[in-house]
Specification:
The protein is built from eight helices and seven strands, in the order βαβαββββαααααβα. It is α+β, with helices and mostly antiparallel strands. It starts with a strand and ends with a helix.
């Protein structure tokens, strides 16, 4: 059974503070160019509509600093410092509504033992410096047009590497839960997690579709041509 509880009138910070918990999955839809490209590519999963989601992560829970922390595979770029791969971050990274217009939390009702198994595997991948793979992500975008291809091994797969939604899928499998059993792990897109047939509750906060900025640009261009 899948229940969606759609919310409004909250900031991202308020949303996470209310619904984040250890063992839950976070999904966000970003407004950056690469996020919009990922949302667009998933239209083959959503019957032509752009997906709301471009990134996925796993909630560890709050720490001594009072912040919720997540395990994710991401490209984290700051001045003179770049992290590419599985890493730990505060969820406050996703508090900016202008950068992350849509956020969701999936609760699969994991047992404490399952949550611990996932956290253990995630921390092992952090310690092993598992890389983020743009190559594998490209492989997903190529294969996503075909259900047949998605059930087979990602042709651009690499060892000791994983992109965001493949990481979440891998972590859940380590606890005996497969969120998308018909797909190769490294062909798992964020939308596949959102549409998992494993019973779960989705808490959803959305503000605008991923195409909205592009539509606004197109509208302004058309208006300019008419003047």
């Amino acid at each position: 059974m899948h229940e969606t509880i759609e919310l409004s009138g909250l900031t991202n910070a308020e949303f996470f503070a209310t619904h984040a918990a250890p063992g839950r999955v976070g999904l966000v839809g970003g407004t950056a160019l690469i996020d919009r490209a990922i949302c667009r590519a998933q239209r083959h999963v959503t019957d032509g509509a752009w997906s709301w989601f471009s990134h996925a992560f796993f909630f560890q829970g709050p720490r001594a600093d009072g912040h919720h922390w997540v395990i994710e595979s991401d490209l984290d770029i700051h001045r003179r410092h770049v992290r590419l791969g599985v890493q730990e971050n505060r969820v406050s990274k996703y508090h900016d509504e202008d950068l992350y217009s849509t956020v969701a939390i999936l609760d699969f009702g994991l047992t404490p033992e399952q949550t611990t198994a996932i956290l253990t595997e995630g921390l092992n991948l952090v310690a092993d410096r598992t890389r983020y793979s743009l190559r594998e992500l490209l492989g997903v975008m190529v294969a996503i047009r075909s259900e047949t291809l998605r059930g087979k091994t990602n042709l651009l797969s690499r060892e000791k590497s994983m992109f965001c939604s493949a990481l979440v899928r891998h972590l859940f499998r380590s606890a005996g839960v497969d969120l998308a059993p018909d797909l190769d792990v490294k062909h798992t897109a964020p939308e596949d997690l959102a549409r998992s047939l494993v019973p779960h509750t989705t808490y959803l906060l959305k503000r605008e579709v991923a195409t909205s900025k592009l539509k606004e640009i197109k509208r302004k261009l058309n208006r300019g041509l008419m003047l």
